[in-house]
Design brief:
Blueprint: H1 9-21, E1 39-43, E2 48-49, E3 52-53, E4 63-66, E5 69-72, E6 80-83, E7 88-90, E8 105-114, E9 120-121, E10 123-126, E11 132-134, E12 137-138, E13 144-150, E14 153-160, E15 169-176, E16 181-186, E17 189-195, E18 209-212, E19 224-232, H2 238-247, H3 249-257, H4 261-271
Antiparallel strand pairs: 1-19, 2-3, 3-4, 4-7, 5-6, 6-19, 7-18, 8-15, 8-19, 9-12, 10-11, 10-18, 12-13, 13-14, 15-16, 16-17
Helix pairs in contact: 2-3
Amino acid sequence: MKRNFILTPYLACLLLVGTLCIPTIEVQDASAEVLDPDLVLYFDYEDFKGDTVLEKSGRGYDGAINGKVTQSNDGKFGKAAHFVLGSFLDLDGPNIKPDDIPTEGMSVVAWINVEAVSDMAIFNARAKDNTWLVHPEARGSGKYRWLNRSPGSTIFDIRAGENKKDTWQHYAGTFSRAEGLAVLYINGKNVGEEKARVPTPIAGDWGQGARVGYNIDNNRPFAGLMDDLNVWKRGLTEEEVNVIMNDGVDAFLAVEAHGKLTTTWGKLKALK
């Protein structure tokens, strides 16, 4: 039988006294906590503040809106961002901390719903020596693209999958330098992979800028909806990609924190 809890005056006094006797503890802003040591950027598009989209990794790399990027209620997880052609988020690449720049591995993950089959950049960064270090894109050729570069060298360049307009597609490009392997996942499935052509790290700075939705040279503008963009400085596994795709970054981090990713993912698949 469920018991109803009644707060009597006596109990209320005890609670009040107990509260007053508790030493004052300084509470830090939870938003300042880094969610994961490898999570560099995380835009869930749930919070817009003026001309800024708040970034949720805890690193504080909020996106400055250029053009027209608005909040939509039609996201995969709550709200999404709608990018009008030629609009983007500026991440102030030159001021990204060196330790937050992916060099030994990288993953770019997002839900996208494009308005046309054309060349569209999901995320882009360029080093101060002019190296285009990353190209996660929907392409006008009808495929998707995933690329990383070292200064002077292309590490890999994958073009695979089927680019579709007016439908939600999950994009995930992963690369691990230690494993020497890059993989492109579309809707959680491996559609293309490539062994590293060179053993060198990814270019180590974003000195000429970093953007969401537009290349640094104002080419390949993204037009449509984007949700749950997350960038990592390691190569995610297929299992991790699928958990993020199905349940979102927050759920993935909660499971990961308890060290039960494999077990939980098995249960989630069994329920589907």
